[in-house]
Amino acid sequence: MLNGLLAIAATLLAFLYPGSVELVELDVSLDVTFYSAAVHVDPVFLVWSDNVPSAAMTFGNTIVASRWLQTSEKLDWIMRYELNHVRQFQSLGCLMWPASLFVDMDPFRGEHPVPVEWDRPEQADEVMWLAPEWLPTLWHWLTLEVRFG
What does each C-alpha distance from 134 to 49, 91, 131, 137 come to in angstroms? Predict the structure, then answer.
C-alpha cells in the first residue's frame, strides 16, 4: 500500500512540478509462475526545472534536475548518479530510507565525501550502493497481475 502511494506521489511530482517532463527509461518485465502472471511497468521520469534546490534530486521513479545541467559537462555523471538512486528505490522500496542509516546510499555527503571525477560517470556505480543481482525488486511503478486457480 505504501509503495503504491509512493508511486502516485512520484508521478504527481513528475507532472505537477514546474518544468518540462521527459520519459528517460521504460522497463517492462513479465513474471510467470505456476499460480500467476504479472506484468511490471517501470518508467523513469525526468523533470527539467528552474526550481530545484540542488543540481538534481530523486523521488521514487522521478528525477528533478536543474535546467543548467542540460549544457553542463556534469550532466552524464549526475544523471547516472540519480538513476542509481532510482535503482536503489526500486530494489528496496520504502525500506530505502531506513537502509540508508546502515548502507552508504550517498557517498558524496557526510564527513568524508568522495571527490567527484566528472569525466567518469561510471564512478557513481563504483562508489554508491547498488542492489546485488539476487535481491528481488520490491517496488514497481505499476504491476498488473492475474492469478490462476
Answer: 36, 10, 8, 9
* CA–CA distance, 82 with 88 (Å, rounded to integer): 10
DSSP-assigned beta bridge partners for residue 146:
37
Give which of 46, 44, 42 is closest to 20, Cα–Cα: 46
pLDDT tens digit sequence for 63-107: 999 999 999 999 999 999 999 999 998 988 888 878 888 777 776
The domain ranges of the chain are: 2-147
Pull the grid cell for residue 88.
536503489
pTM: 0.85
Buried-state track 42-59, b at ≥16 Cβ within 10 A, e below 16 = bbbbbbbeeebeebbbbb
Element (H, E) at 53: none
What digits encode the pLDDT tens for the residues 32-68?
999 999 999 999 999 999 888 889 999 889 999 999 9
